Design the sequence.
């Protein structure tokens, strides 16, 4: 099974691109989604987060208060590393399980969508890396609009990741998402045809 790592900066359009590949028939595993699964009530990672950050990162119903935890970790690199030390092993384990299931199902190509593919050193687990690229100003605008963040909060999230210009240089393929949604879709369709369907007929 060929595993393509799909990465890019925050709000670059990874999820949007992945959905388009999925519509074309690709298998997709999304690290952000796994990150949500591993902190559900009852999961070991949630207990560890509470032990490290206190009850203030919980909602009254016992679920993780993501906004409260986000405010802490995107303002404090040491706190972010603590959180990553808890969540990343659990995310990686779950990703391996999902990849194994896809492999057993005879999947040809799977996308592993992960914002921190380079930062977390997961590149060795994928066969190639594709990067969704965006210029900084559009990135700030889309991030503020999607998450309702102030410019300052958006900038601190962006600063917690490897700069987009660096990520761009590391991609085997760069998907340019500065343009419209239609332009993104056109690139995805072309890549699907040229890089996946024509190379390996059949499902993803
Ligand atoms: C801090 C948390 C609770 C904030 O939750 P929130 O719902 O606001 O954001 P969400 O999880 O949807 O992430 C949005 C984007 O933030 C960026 N981001 C998330 N975690 C990190 C991080 N540790 N470092 C840098 N950027 C990050 C990514 O680009 C991600 O796509 C959450 O992001 C989290 O648990 N992060 C730690 C786990 C992690 O590293 N996830 C990234 C996938 S491996
Ligand atoms: N070409 C585009 N034109 C306009 N808006 C777009 C375009 N592509 C994506 N968006 C919007 O930009 C925002 C970020 O896109 P998306 O959520 O796909 O990014 P992401 O890389 O998965 O982000 P994150 O790292 O935070 O998970 C979303 O609100 C999405 O709808």
Sequence:
């Amino acid at each position: 099974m060929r595993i393509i790592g799909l990465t890019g900066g925050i709000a670059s359009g990874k999820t949007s691109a992945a959905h388009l590949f999925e519509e074309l028939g690709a298998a997709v595993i999304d690290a952000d989604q796994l990150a949500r699964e591993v902190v559900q009530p009852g999961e070991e990672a949630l207990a560890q987060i509470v032990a490290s950050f206190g009850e203030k990162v919980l909602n009254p119903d016992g679920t993780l208060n993501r906004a409260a935890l986000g405010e802490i970790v995107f303002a404090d690199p040491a706190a972010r590393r603590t959180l990553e030390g808890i969540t990343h092993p659990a995310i990686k384990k779950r990703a391996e399980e999902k990849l194994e299931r896809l492999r057993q199902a005879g999947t040809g190509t799977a996308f592993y969508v992960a914002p921190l593919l380079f930062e977390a050193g997961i590149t060795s687990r994928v066969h190639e890396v594709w990067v969704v690229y965006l210029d900084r100003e559009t990135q700030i605008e889309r991030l503020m609009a999607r998450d309702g963040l102030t410019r300052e909060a958006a900038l601190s999230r962006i600063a917690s990741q490897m700069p987009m210009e660096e990520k761009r240089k590391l991609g085997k393929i760069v998907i340019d998402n500065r343009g419209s949604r239609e332009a993104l879709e056109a690139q995805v369709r072309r890549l699907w045809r040229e890089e996946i369907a024509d190379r390996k007929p059949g499902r993803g």
The domain at 2-194 is CATH 3.40.50.300 (Rossmann fold). The chain is about 55% helix and 15% strand. The first helix runs from residue 14 to 23. The mean pLDDT is 95.
